[in-house]
Amino acid sequence: MGKLVALVLLGVGLSLVGEMFLAFRERMNASREVEPVEPENCHLIEELENGSEDIDILPSGLAFISSGLKYPGLQNFAPDEPGKIFLMDLNEQNPRAQALEISGGFDKELFNPHGISIFIDKDHTVYLYVVNHPHMKSTVEIFKFEEQQRSLVYLKTIKHELLKSVNDIVVLGPEQFYATRDHYFTNSFLSLFEMILDLRWTYVLFYSPREVKVVAKGFCSANGITVSADQKYVYVADVAAKNIHVMEKHDNWDLTQLKVIQLGTLVDNLTVDPATGDILAGCHPNLKKLLNYNPEDPPGSEVLCIQNVLSEKPRVSTVYANNGSVLQGTSVASVYRGKILIGTVFHKTLYCEL
Predict the structure, then answer these.
(1) Quick check: 112 and 93 in contact, CB under 8 A?
(2) Taking the model in full, what pTM does it have?
């Protein structure tokens, strides 16, 4: 009798595990392929070969690009090279990317940049905040941009016990920002287990010198984050849940969820079109291909545009889609006056005139 009970329990356990893996495959879109949507006037940026995980563009058209991210479980074509911040002037007829020099005593050999966000002070000084992963930890680095010298001056490193497994940030004031935590566990094996179990333990936090607190939680994997042009709403991508959370920002920096926009694709970084208020989302159509990289069957790329975000029925359209033959692992798209930069986690960067 005891052996029979043990066999029954084993059978039930294996069945549950099987169901979890099937559900995980479905969440990963493991069998999805994309139909190509490719604007005509596009070309790859030669200087950007090792990723452009996040992009933020100044109102003047200067684009900052984080490159060289080393992230557990993801492909990297230059594992021995430190990460860099590149600059492009989108006002130029044929814009090129140049790596910015960093001064001020910053340890460039340990630079592993992830999400970035620009802040412009009242005196028009431009600051760049960068999520960094030295030794696979999480910090936020603050740099001042010297436009004439085309360089960054290192100012400060922010560390905090809540700043773990940080993916992206959006800065709203001097040392005031929201940040996303994409995994609860920092161990790569446990973080995968966390995704399989669909634990929903990740969150959005608010940081300031006076207060650090969790302001939204219950995400599968909180990823990209950005803010509306009027700074009334915060948009958060939950990559594993394949959706975007629209949240109202309060005076005390707390966030209240207004709605969730389901997209059916794995959403990475978000940007807002300053001219229209539309959200642009860099997406992974098939997470299985991204996590199990095969150059013969590479991960594809997808960029979605979400219009009328606050309406009952936002309009979702595909701006770009490719099966990996041109662009692999798209993570972000950002626009400036009819031009779009499409970045990737570890691959190339595409520039298009729409």
Answers:
(1) no
(2) 0.94
